[in-house]
């Protein structure tokens, strides 16, 4: 992965993490937390779409990354919310 791709990946991760936090209400993690949620969400979403659902190339590579990351980040936040309730 070259430097430009890494920067785009981090920017998309931050945006998607923030947007997932807005959608899921109450999950604000700050800029670093949003990047982590977005990047982990991208890995989860890419794995889910490519391996489980066998869906690839929806629109374009960048739009696909945003869609995969958004779905993955929302799934991640749902799992974190369930985990928080169990731990309390």
Automatic annotation (TrEMBL):
UniProt key word Mitochondrion: no
Topology in membrane: Multi-pass membrane protein
Transmembrane segments: 6-24, 31-53, 65-83
Gene Ontology CC terms, in alphabetical order: plasma membrane
Pfam families linked: Transgly_assoc
Keywords attached to this entry: Cell membrane, Membrane, Transmembrane, Transmembrane helix
Localization: Cell membrane
InterPro entries: Transgly_assoc
Domain of life the protein comes from: Bacteria
Protein family (similarity comment): Belongs to the UPF0410 family.
UniProt name for this protein: GlsB/YeaQ/YmgE family stress response membrane protein
Native source organism of the sequence: Ereboglobus luteus
